[in-house]
Amino acid sequence: TSPGGMASAAASAPGATHLATKVELTIWCENLMDMDVFSKSDPLCALYISTSGSHWYEVCFGRTEMILNCLNPKFARRFVIDYYFEMVQKLKFCVYDIDNSTYDLSDDDFLGELECTLGQIVSNRQMTRQLLLKDRRPAGHGTITVRGPSFLWWSDPFLEFYKQTETGWQLAHRTEVVHNNLNPVWRPFRVSLRALCGGDVEKLIKVVFSLTFDHDSKSKNLYIKKNVNFNLSLCIELAKRYANKCMLALSALKKEYSFLDYVMGGCQINFTIAIDFTGSNGDPMSPQSLHYISPDGYNEYLQAIWAVGNVVIDYNSTKMFPVFGFGAEIPPSWQVSHEFPINFNPANPFCAGIEGVVQAYRQCLPQVKLWGPTNFSPIINHVACFARQALQQNAQYFVLLILTDGVITDMDQTRAAIVAASRLPMSIIIVGVGGADFGAMEFLDSDDKLLLSPTGEAAARDIVQFVPFRHFHGNSLALAQSVLAELPDQVSSFFNAYKLKPPNVLGVPEPS
Questions:
Q1: Among candidates 82, 89, 93, which has minimal Cα distance to 27?
Q2: Which residues cross the membrane (predicted)?
Q3: CA 318/CA 504 separation, integer angstroms
Q4: pLDDT one-digit tens code per residue, 325-340
Q5: Phi-psi region of 155 (alpha: psi -120 to 50; beta: other; left: phi over 0)
Q6: What is the pTM of this model?
C-alpha cells in the first residue's frame, strides 16, 4: 500500500494525452450479508476498471484493508484514480468476506458489487447504491457508499522559473522542495533581473509547478512538471538604483476553481445536439448516404452521438437532451427549417437519454425532405439565448454538438454568432462526417488565434472544437477523447474569468 493508508488505483487511460486529475474515493458499506457462522463477515472492497468492452481488470493497489467482524465497514484505505473527463471510465466495486490468507478472491464469499462510472461519482460527489449479486439480485439489504472525489494533491511541490530566450525556455531559478505540505510557502529568494528576463521587464516569465509523489515505499519518487494553468499575479519591484539586482516578489497566486470544483459544486452541463439534414448527405434510403442506417443499426451520425453522449450524460442530472435538425423541409408546411426539433415538438424538444436521441433520429429521417442550405447561425443563436439567460446563475454551461457533412453557407452570420457566444457559458463542438472539404470548420476552430467577426470584433475565447469523424475510423473512444478534451478547461476558464463561484461553494474545497 502507498503512504497515508491509500490504495493507489491510478490506472492509465489508453490514448489520453492530457495530464490526468487525480481524485481520491472513500468507501463504506452498511448492512452487509453475514456469511460467517460464529462471527460477522470480514469485508474487503476491491476495485476493477474497464476502459472498453466488457473486460474488467483489478487496478494496481486496488483493494481496501480487511475489517474483522463488521457488517458496516468504513474503510480507511482509499482509492486513487486518474480522472479524464473525455472518457467513460467504468468502475466496479466488489465486496468480499475474506475467509483465508490467499490473495485470490475467488475462494472468498461474495457480498455484492456496484457498477458505475467515475463521471457519475464526480457529478454526484457521494453515491449510495444497493449492492447486487452476480445475477443482479439485491445482495440482501447491503449498500455501498462511494464518496468523492477529494483531490489528491502532490505532497512535495517546488516552483521553477523560466526565462524566454532565442532558443526556448531556460531555467532561471528553482525553489526548495516543501515536503508533506498541502499549503506550501516557499522561502523568499533573490534573483537578478538579467537572469530572470534578460533585463526586459516586459518579457514573459514562465512559472512551472514541479510535483513529486512518493508512490510507494519501494519505488523512486515520481516527478511531474506542469505549467501553471491559472493566472499568476507577479509583483516586480524595480529599485532603479540597483539596476540589474532588482528583487522579484511573487505575490499571492490568483485562486481559481477547477472543472471538478464546478461539477462537484452543482454546475450542470447542458448538451444540445444539432443534426445536418441537408441534401448533400444523399438519399437516406441509399447505402451511399451518410444518413443511411446500416443493417447493424449504425451510421456516422449515430456513432458520433453515442460516443460523445455517453460521456456527457453523467454530468446532467435530468439526462434529457434537446435535439434539433437543420437544412430540411419539414411537415406540414414543407418549408426549409434550420432549427426544428427532431421529435417535432417545439414545446418539448427533449429526448430521454442517448437511447431517446437515437430513437427520435430514426423516426425523424423518413418524415423530412433533405434540402439546404447549410446554415449554422440559427441553432448557435438558439442555444446562446439560453446560455445568456443562465449567465448570472453560474450553475449552467451549454454545449452545442453540431454534426454536419459539408461547407457552411452562412459563414459571416456564423462567425458573428460564435464571437457573441464566446462571452457566454457555452462551447461548440463540430463533428464533420463524410469526406467533404472541412476547411471552413478548421477556420472556425481557430486554435492559432481568436476568431474575428465580419466587423472585426474578436472572440473573448476559443469555444469551437472541430473534429473530422473520418480520422477515427469508427474508434468511438478516441473520437470522444478528441471531441471533449478541451471542454473542462473551457468550462472552468469561463466561470473563473467572470469570478463566478460553484453554486454549492460550501461543499467545495478552497480553490487552487
A1: 93
A2: none
A3: 18
A4: 999 999 999 999 999 9
A5: alpha
A6: 0.73
Check whether domain 3-151 has CATH 3.40.50.720, yes or no: no
Residue extents of the structural domains in the chain: 3-151, 156-250, 274-303+319-469
Paired with 114 in beta bridges are 93
Pairing of strands 57-63, 78-83: unpaired
d(CA 510, CA 512): 7
Give the integer Cα–Cα distance in Å for 474 and 296: 14
Tell me: the pLDDT tens digits for 235-267? 334 333 333 433 334 443 345 788 888 888 888
Rg for the chain, CA atoms, rounded: 26
The kind and range of the H/E element at 311 are helix 300-312
Q: Supply the CATH classification number for the domain 274-303+319-469.
A: 3.40.50
Among 512, 467, 460, CA closest to 485 = 467
Residue stretches of the chain with pLDDT short of 70: 1-20, 51-53, 149-156, 179-183, 201, 209-255, 394, 505-512
Nearest one of 137, 156, 145 to 27, comparing CA atoms: 145
CA-to-CA distance for 340 and 222, rounded, in angstroms?
Answer: 53
